[in-house]
């Protein structure tokens, strides 16, 4: 994966497209002109997520930013703890990372499909390890993992889309996404690799040909190769012909159709999935075009090339991969895509990081290993490294991850509802503190207001969003407290921004409201608004090198719920919490 675009909201019937409860009535998905439909002819809007990091690790998901291909990470680990313990870690990783509990959660949250990024080496040997050239040794592990995942999806009436993420030899010059070894022939430089890929897809299609909950075959993820001018266009973004890519996809389609005439075949363009020059029109009557969308604006113009392709070639389209941004971007993107009847698959479900539904928690021993691999620390001993890796494998398991409700809310509620809802219950009875980072859930401008909300660097050339990249994934800048790793604060405050909190007062009375702040200057200035009325205005924030309380005055709070907004007239300070002291 390359760690990588509103019209009026879609009508409710489309926005909440439901899956039929019975497998027999649901049937196979198929392409119907420009729509994906089930066998009853009902429009199916895919709302999916990719299981990135499970069968194929990418370095950035593990906080490894140096030599991030899986085979290099594995080799580095093996050099410290040995082959046996390395295999033990990878077995634990595969066993824990994705389970039925994960798929059950996805269904509960609102997803109706799963995209499985597969590494070919879990299904067959690399060509240089085959005893007889041209033969294919089939490995049980990959098929068994896929069978289990399919069973969990079927139990939840969710579609499973198979995605070959790491093809034999590697399909591009972005090495990490396909675990490519640049010292060996790529997919495009080796006929043997291509034949192995064709054989693998035929094997998969034959195995799953009668499974209606297989949504389709995404036959090659993000090819990125300059066929015409490799030296100057190594990732194929300017490629005009794409002859080898088209031929390989046609050969794979032919092999699939020899054993399976029912399932959708999904194809991707060059240049990380978006360059279809020379590839279209399609060559199969049950085909879908996949595009990938990252870090650009979320207006109709940003998906015009997708809509144009759908219309010109009368073929369904799908955003097979998107994400890696802020909640604001997620809400915008989903509202845009669903308004155009474009299904989507988010990326990824979980990693070390907060901008996905689940976050894998790191640990000190693993951090030592990462620092060493990244060239920023001493080599850990074998015991430390092994313990850190096994703790990390355990941390990937459902129930051990941090579930980011703000991300889920941004994907499923906020695209179609502007109302704010409480992040958590803030019960006020005197002597209470409300953490500043626990402001309401909702869109920018409704639950909070921040001036720098998302990363649009593909469109405007500069990154943005949550500068602290901690705790939550909104535009609000949230930082981890260096003195207490369990605490967080709001920082990088700017004039005009505000935060909203829903509080529930159980003891009515007169309260003093204080804010806990730290400021490098004395220029900060805030206003407190409760239930639409300013109760204090233009309270100055003094300079301080440590946390201190600033009194915003007394307010009379009746029993029940109240909406409080802290309005930042002049920023530049950090905010830790709001305190409510009941006065007698």
Automatic annotation (TrEMBL):
The superkingdom listed in its UniProt entry is Bacteria
Keywords attached to this entry? Glycosidase, Hydrolase, Signal
Q: Which residues form the signal peptide?
A: 1-21
Keyword Signal assigned to the entry: answer is yes
Sequence ranges assigned to domain CBM6 in this UniProt record: 464-581
Whether Signal counts among this entry's keywords is: yes
Which Pfam family is one of this chain's hits?
A: Cellulase
Family, according to the entry, reads as follows: Belongs to the glycosyl hydrolase 5 (cellulase A) family.
List the protein's name.
Cellulase family glycosylhydrolase
Q: What organism does the UniProt record list as the source? A: Pinibacter soli
């Amino acid at each position: 994966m390359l760690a990588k675009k509103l019209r009026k909201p879609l009508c409710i019937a489309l926005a909440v497209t439901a899956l039929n409860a019975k497998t027999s009535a649901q049937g196979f998905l198929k392409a119907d002109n420009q729509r994906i439909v089930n066998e009853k002819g009902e429009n199916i809007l895919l709302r999916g997520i990719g299981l990135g990091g499970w069968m194929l690790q990418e370095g950035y998901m593990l906080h490894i930013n140096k030599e991030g291909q899986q085979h290099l990470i594995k080799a580095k680990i093996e050099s410290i703890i040995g082959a046996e313990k390395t295999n033990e870690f990878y077995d634990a990783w595969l066993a824990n990372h994705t389970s039925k509990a994960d798929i059950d959660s996805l269904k509960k949250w609102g997803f109706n499909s799963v995209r499985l990024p597969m590494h070919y080496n879990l299904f067959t040997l690399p060509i240089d390890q085959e005893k007889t050239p041209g033969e294919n040794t089939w490995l049980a592990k990959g098929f068994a993992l896929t069978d289990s995942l399919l069973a969990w999806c079927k139990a939840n009436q969710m579609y499973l889309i198979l995605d070959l993420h790491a093809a034999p030899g590697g399909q591009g010059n972005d090495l990490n996404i396909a675990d490519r070894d640049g010292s060996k022939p790529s997919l495009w430089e080796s006929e043997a690799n291509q034949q192995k890929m064709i054989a693998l897809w035929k094997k998969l299609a034959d195995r799953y040909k009668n499974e209606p909950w297989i949504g389709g075959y995404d036959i090659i993820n993000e090819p990125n190769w300059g066929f015409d001018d490799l030296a100057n266009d190594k990732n194929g973004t300017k490629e005009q012909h794409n002859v080898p890519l088209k031929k390989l996809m046609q050969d794979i389609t032919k092999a699939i159709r020899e054993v399976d005439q029912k399932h959708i075949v999904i194809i991707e363009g060059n240049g990380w999935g978006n360059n279809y020059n020379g590839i279209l029109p399609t060559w199969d009557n049950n085909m879908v075009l996949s595009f990938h969308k990252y870090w650009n604006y979320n207006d109709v113009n940003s998906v015009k090339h997708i809509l144009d392709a759908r219309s010109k070639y009368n073929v369904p389209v799908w955003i097979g991969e998107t994400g890696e941004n802020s909640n604001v971007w997620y809400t915008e993107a989903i509202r845009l895509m669903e308004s155009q009847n474009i299904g989507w698959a988010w990326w990824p479900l979980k990693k070390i990081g907060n901008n996905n539904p689940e976050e894998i928690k790191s640990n000190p021993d693993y951090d030592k290993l990462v620092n060493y691999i990244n060239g920023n620390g001493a080599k850990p001993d074998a015991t430390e490294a092994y313990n850190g890796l096994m703790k990390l494998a355990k941390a990937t398991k459902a129930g051990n991850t941090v579930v980011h409700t703000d991300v889920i809310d941004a994907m499923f509620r906020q695209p179609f509802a502007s109302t704010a809802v409480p992040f958590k219950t803030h019960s006020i009875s005197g002597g209470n503190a409300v953490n500043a980072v626990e402001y309401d859930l909702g869109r920018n401008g409704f639950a909070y207001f921040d001036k720098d909300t998302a990363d649009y660097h593909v469109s405007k050339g500069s990154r943005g969003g949550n500068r602290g990249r901690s705790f939550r994934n909104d535009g609000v800048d949230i930082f981890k407290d260096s003195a207490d790793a369990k605490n967080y604060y709001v920082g990088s405050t700017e004039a005009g921004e505000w935060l909203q909190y829903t509080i529930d007062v159980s003891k009515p009375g007169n309260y003093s409201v204080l804010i806990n702040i730290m400021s490098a200057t004395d220029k900060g200035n805030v206003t407190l608004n409760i239930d639409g009325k300013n109760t204090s205005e233009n309270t100055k924030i003094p300079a301080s090198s440590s946390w201190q309380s600033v009194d915003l005055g007394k307010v009379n709070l009746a029993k029940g719920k109240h909406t409080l907004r802290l309005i930042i007239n002049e920023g530049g300070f950090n905010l830790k919490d709001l305190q409510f002291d009941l006065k007698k």
